[in-house]
Amino acid sequence: MAEIAKEVNGGDARDLHSLLSSPARDFLIRNNGEQVKIESLKGKKIGLYFSAAWCGPCQRFTPQLVDIYNELSSNVGFEVVFVSGDEDEDSFKDYFSKMPWLAVPFTDSETRDRLDEVFKVRGIPNLVMIDDEGKLVNENGVGVIRSYGADAYPFTPEKMKEIKEEEERARREQTLRSVLVTPSRDFVVTRDGNKVPVSQLEGKTIGLLFSVASYRQCKEFTSKLEEVYKKLKENNEDFEIVLISLEDDEEAFKQDFETNPWLALPFNDKSSSKLTRHFMLSTLPTLVILGPDGKTRHSNVAEAIDDYGVVAYPFTPEKFEELKAIEKAKLEAQTLESLLVSGDLNYVLGKDGAKVLVSELVGKNILLYFSAHWCPPCRGFTPKLVEVYKQIKEKDEAFELIFISSDRDQESFDEYYSQMPWLALPFGDPRKTSLARTFKVGGIPMLAALGPTGKTVTKEARDLVGAHGADAYPFTEERVKEIEAKYTEMAKEWPEKVKHVLHEEHELELTRVPVYICDKCDEEGQIWSYHCDECDFDLHAKCALKEDANINGDDAVKEGGGESQDGWVCDGNVCTKS
After folding, report:
1. Distance CA 56, CA 46 (A)
2. Is 67 helix (H, G, I), strand (E, B) or coil?
3. 6: pLDDT strictly greater than 60
4. Alpha-carbon span 294 to 314, nearest angstrom
5. How confident is the model over 512-525, as a mean pLDDT?
6. How far apart are the C-alpha atoms of 470 and 481, rounded to whole Å?
7. What whole-number distance in Å separates Cα of residue 154 and Cα of residue 44?
8. Phi, psi for 168 (deg, rounded to 5)
9. 160, 172 in Cβ contact below 8 A?
10. Strand 524-532 to strand 35-37: parallel, antiparallel, or no bridges (unpaired)?
11. 3-state helix, strand and coil shares in percent for the chain, rounded to the nearest 5
């Protein structure tokens, strides 16, 4: 904000009239064509709303801003001015018809472009708060409105500081009532609509479930949580769950809630967004645990529920220490068979569809590849992994890779697996769930490496394959150190800085960059780059040290490789002194 404020609020800053007017216009317009003089905004706080009909996030934010505008405009001095990013006037008119505020006329593209530049608008929706003198008050209006709504008015730094201090005080003095009770509501609801006073929950361990019914991850977690909840109730544990739905579709909320056995805040309760800030929500689903005293016992036990189920209760620090010790012992005892054998499921599939017994893979180095056909990054990574697999197999037969699919149907699995030369778990195999839990698969593609004993070598094998290819095998810490030593030795005699005709603005500095595209030859580079951080410019060593490396042609390496004037030899992506 400081940079924009300095420019907008500086000594040569424009006033409100010069910001919003043009030589031929001293007014703004309403969606009915009415003209409103800019001078009528005197004494008001103004939000400049940069938005467009074609922008999905804008379409979702605009109704929220309409609600806040309607709440504030009749009570305090607040106005919004729409600065359109639409591509044609019909789109502008249709979108503006849903807005109760003012706008810069669509025909005045010069003013709209100037406002974009003055406030450095690089993305929309963007809501910039200014005062009636045109001075910047808050550049993050979208975030402020989403988080605090009308409570943030007049959106000044002083008001934001006051809100933050109040939030900190509320965390320090937290009780169950301060979390769940509002001036207009002292109850939560059951799925059949009955009201349960919050006072009846005091003294219990409470789980606050932040969820969105339409999210797949939330649906999957809810089914697991329901099992845990029912077991705790059967054991007469003093535990209750309160759903805090962040769903914006009431019908979806109802369909979800009517199948769940716990309590909830009413749909679209205004305290929901406040609670997401209070507990500093960063992911969904989240299950916050409050102790019997109403204080936060744990900020999110969703992963613990996934991993341990009811065993994680009562979610105390002592319980988590106990679980950590169990997990450590489990990892130390891990074998390939303990991972891949479950009852009669003691095999994986070969390329011909034949069953390959897990016992036949014991003693090999194994990669577990979590992937899916619907996932673009997976489809991009798989061809490289196929090459690496073949290269490793050529030098070590005691190596295998197993595909663990997250595909949505058998047909997709079959099509994707047809591109792979390795083994696989059958589609829909229940072992996938336990493997994903063991390796904490939060995203795909994910590649885990197992050593000959079946113990985990690394869960970061994808990064190692991306950076080093087959050279990273067998993916051990020792092998990674050997590679690091090799790259350090490689660059010892290279110059630390070079000048290059393709980037005369700055010197290029020898820098560790895991993966990049060379700006000279457009080929991928790894580990070492002659790099300009300010301009995000990269050159391979072979490209940086060739004959055009120096503007004057000094310290050159001949095109096509070979020895340079000062003894540099370039071979592939590597340049060394002869």
Report:
1. 24
2. helix
3. no
4. 14
5. 87
6. 15
7. 10
8. -65, -40
9. no
10. unpaired
11. 40, 25, 35
